[in-house]
User: What shape does this take?
Amino acid sequence: MYRIRFHGRGGQGMKTASRILGTAFFHAGFEVQDAPRYGAERRGAPMFAYVRAARQTINERGIIRHPDLVIVADDTLMGTPTAAVQQGITGQTVMLIHSSEQAQVWRSRLNLAGPVFILPAFEAARDRLELRYIGTACAAAAARLIGVFSWSSLEKALREELAGLGESVVEKNLPHAQQAYDLMESHQGTVTPGAAVTAESFTQPKWIDLSFESARRAAPAIHAAGTSEQMKTGLWRTMRPIIDRAHCKHCWWVCSTFCPDGVIQVDAAGCPQIDYAHCKGCMVCVSQCPNHAIEVVSEQAAQLAEKAGESK
Amino acid sequence: MKRTLLTGNGAAAWGARLAGVEYLPAFPITPQTEIIETIARWIDFGEMDCRMVTLDSEHSMITAAGAAAVTGVRVFTATSSQGLLYGMEMLYTVAGWRAPFVLVNVSRGLASPITLEPDHNDILAARDSGFLQLHCATCQEVLDCILLAYRLAEDERVRLPVIVNLDGFYLSFTREPVEIPDAESVARFLPPFDPENLGFRAGAPLSEAVAVIGGTPYSYFRYQSHLAALNAVDVFAENAAAFAQAFGRTYQAVEAYHCDDAELVFVMMGSFATKAKEAVDRLREAGEAVGLLRPVLLRPFPAADFRRALSGKKGVIVVDQNLSMGKGGVLHTELASALYGYPGTTPVLVSFIGGLGGRDISAEEFYEMHAVTRQAVSEKRAPAPRLLYTEVELREMKKIQAIARVQGLKEQQT
Ligand code: SF4
Ligand code: SF4
Assistant: This one.
């Protein structure tokens, strides 16, 4: 059975990517299971999606513990514990990372034993519109690494899954998918289906007897004030709002009131300041600013620009 | 007939569409909302002729569903978790009216604390309401069970509402291959709702259960509902036979997987039961005589089917994805009451609680539950019920509590 896991942020098209791959498998005569998994927060928050494909009925269900292929659309997730990108990875697991770093960098940084492939992010990062195609590019590159479908059958799956978005969206996605598919040509078939966990010999689960604790401790209450501050929701951002000082009219209450996370503070001079450690990139402020004074740039591009600035 | 990839929610919407549903009162809740969104789109595009009304709450929604059903239209509605509980008063009320309709519940754990992921405490809270319950393990079953549920609800030997249950995420948002039967064969299996046995006609109004009454009539009406529910065991079997004829898929009140020659048997309900199937396959490869029983029908409880299937078995591994505080697993309790006091060897029942709030159950845990039960059989004594919870999970929990600065942390950590 093929077991494949996609990691990304809400809004990066990982659900669609998993569906494209699922549909391609289905058309190739496989039994398929694909599903996204996310919590209450969507856009920008870490999420994953998975695909199982086999020649027989699939009875496995839920999260994939030992993936044959892991696709990471956003390399900032690598350092986010809750994203659990590396969970269950073995020497057999193939990693496909959308990143501006080299495979060797990730291999040594994460001490990965299995093959690592890079879907280069340099160009895409400069133009934020290009980021829309990460999902399809990831699906196409993954399809080539699996290597059981032709380009034409992948294209069919892609067209089916994107049909709801309109013909022009499909046409814009196709070249990105094709490019990613071609890029992995020499690695076609690197991903091989893994085996199930056998019952002959298995690692015993370390169950414990949960013992009684006083309700002072065992009731689900949060006693520490301001714990949400520790949750750096700024890491969720795929797009960054930037206030253009030349156009801001200091009407102050608009953006700061509408921001659902309350991360826009107005300073003594009446200037709004965004706390980027917690701004989750929802773009509500952008749509509410009556003076169109808030610009949007791709987070990845903004970070690259920051890095370049520092090294100068 | 068309085989395609559908989510459990998509399959539920198709079930309602093929059933020719005429009225849909709705209220949104995660993870159910996609069902009514899908149907709303079909109605918008003229692909489905149905009246959809959004209500102010699940309480009103279930009232509207019951009221419409007793006037003779085919009614569908859907909810989940807190929504089902919010409408609980009306669940009992409309079941008492003997209003035949189908409600889909997408299982999700109950607050507090809050979660979006599934377990069965929501649906089991409706266990005694008078609604019959069908529990699905795959997306295909979701579609099929809705068709079966209408035949069951509308049968004059039954005339009770039915809940079709599917697990949030594991089915609701998971795509699997589903055969969508063509409308003509469904129409043959499930003809339009014949309101004949409702006794309601326009111009001849009737009042539903209005009087405040004493124990004598009350007992009569309540027990009649119980008898009708019991009838549903046989009616379900009849319908399932007709369904198999029409569509080639076989359903039983209790699905049996490799049970005939099994010594130990898993008992589970819902989508996690397919994980148990996988474990049965792997354990059989390792030479173990093991099987699985999965109640599709939970109300009425198919006690006789369980007795038959478990007679002569050595041990039963009951995995409850629910928890009755101060008692334990509901399925374990129900099974024990079905087996106790009947002649024949009574197997050792071992109770496990797992999958609360969508917590995964690993392959290794299935193998270990099997090993524990085999041990219990040889000792002829069931161990204490066990929560599936590992050392690593407790460590993670402690970390969360440290962040939340729970009191008494210091003294208890030593
Ligand atoms: S809403 Fe726009 S113009 Fe007004 S303070 Fe905010 S950024 Fe400036
Ligand atoms: S409203 Fe603007 S500042 Fe606030 S979280 Fe959203 S994007 Fe960030």
